[in-house]
Amino acid sequence: MAVEKKKIIIVGCGPGAASYITPAAEAAAEKADVLIVSRRLKDLFPECPAERIDSGTDVAGVLDVIASRRDDGRQVVVLATGDPGIFSLAKPVIRRFGRENCEVIPGISSIQVAFARLGLDWQDARIISAHSSDPEVSAADLRPAGKIAVLGGREAAWAWIAGLIPELGEGRRVFLCEDLTLPGEKVREVASDGLADLPVSSRAIVLIIKGELLS
Description:
Blueprint: E1 8-12, H1 23-30, E2 34-37, E3 51-54, H2 59-71, E4 76-80, H3 90-97, E5 102-105, H4 110-118, E6 126-129, H5 139-142, E7 147-151, H6 155-167, E8 172-178, E9 186-190, E10 204-210
Parallel strand pairs: 1-4, 1-5, 2-3, 2-4, 6-7
Antiparallel strand pairs: 7-10, 8-9, 8-10
């Protein structure tokens, strides 16, 4: 008899604090036979008895594992930090298995939190990830944007951001947002020329804002 293949559930787990995890995310985790987790999320939902598989950096490999577990009729739940729609494993999972075979449960992104801390909307923000490598985007492309959010996460990212800011033109203010929603949260305005030398958390976002938007 053919095994029924269940939809893969992709769950946004918020920016860090447990209080920012939605009830829908918790309910999805309770259904899991298999949890695909990143290093940051490996201890989330400790009461869940599901098999835990590290998503690691081998995307093709973890997609094969998902396919294997799904072929066995098991419920696979993929945990994503923040919101699955922003630089997560959701994109390759959906590309491989199809939208019709996936269910996405949104979460609260650290980018949302960062803009909220400044009292700014973010529907017109440019969002860039420098988490794994320097982005392939030019200052000329970014210059028209009044609000830019850069996800960091590695030491070299801060040097790249520090080099970018002067090329965007005058009048930009720079805010470093670290460990958002966690006990050590810090949001501070910094000088762009000193950013590369600051000790920065791996959970950090840099907001680059045109000054007139903050007046």
